[in-house]
Amino acid sequence: MKLLSYSFGGASSWGAVAGNQVVDLQAASGGRFPTLRAALAALPLGEIEALVTASAPRVPLDAIGFLPVITDPGKILCVGLNYDAHRVEANRDRTASPTLFARFADSQVGHGQPMLVPPESTQFDYEGEIAIVIGRRGRRIAEADAWSHIAGYAPYNDGSIRDWQAHTTQWTAGKNFSGTGAFGPWMVTRGEIADGARMELVTRLNGRELQRGNTDQLIFPIPRLLAYISSFTPLEPGDVIVTGTPSGVGFKRTPPVFMQPGDRVEVEVSGLGTLVNPVAAER
Fold it and tell me: Over the stretch 55-71, which tens digit does the pLDDT of each residue have?
């Protein structure tokens, strides 16, 4: 099932994609769960899926505005340098544990919404990634149990303001400008993707393929990431883990390739769909 957050008629909601329609699951639940995160915290995925009935309210898919899949995550934790070819192109040493940084919820936009080039920089880089959405709380999760804590997966573009990222050894500033991360268009639930199945990722800028990788190439696989992260912080329903980008990023190309106003960037992941965003100047 594809679950998403969206706006329609001036109001925000969440629901499930059914053909060319969106089933309004906020309304179908009687308004008990104002966000997808709230539903994940309260209900097993099976009960969320059971809300999709013939009588549930529906709206046209082409009439909605896409919001970030999880609009109000408690945590967004991103993994850096998790593909070896990207680690090599970035000239960084391999580490014994995952490299992590945080992204703020208000730095994200949804599918179809513009990713914003801030006036402070002209070095806005793409980073196609795969995001994990947590569905069940866990602390010190064993790797063997990790899959059962996942609600689903979504494409992600962890856009980076490279010169600000390089101001210090910490990446926080360069990863959190407003409107620089994109998340969507929806989350495909775990039952649709076999645990450990290889997912292929491709990033295109103006139709030109610039990145290609797959989850078999992750230095730290998904179970290891959940086990490591949950060792120091509880993972809660609706938390998001962004698993890393393959090689081919713009700032390591000759000449460098940065996103510009008027561009179109796509992150396609097999089995999940394609996240598409225009690029615009922040106003």
Answer: 999 999 999 999 999 99
* Structural contact between residues 125 and 131, judged by C-beta atoms closer than 8 angstroms: no
Q: Look up tokens 């089995």; give the residue.
A: 271
Given 3.90.850.10, 1.10.240.10, 3.40.50.1000, 1.10.10.1150, which CATH number is that of 76-281? Answer: 3.90.850.10
pTM of the model: 0.97
Chain region(s) in the chain for CATH 3.90.850.10: 76-281
Distance CA 156, CA 131 (A): 6
197-205: average pLDDT: 98
The CA distance from 200 to 64, in Å, is 27
Q: Give CA–CA dist 229/231, Å, rounded.
A: 5
pLDDT per residue as tens digits for the range 249-268: 999 999 999 999 999 999 99
CA dist 263 and 97 (Å) reads: 36
Helix (H) or strand (E) holding 25: helix 25-28
What Å distances lie between residue 47 and 69, 148, 252, CA to CA? 19, 16, 46
Long-range contacts of 39-42 (CB under 8 A, 24+ apart): 39/14, 40/133, 40/134, 40/135, 40/151, 40/237, 40/238, 41/236, 41/237, 41/238
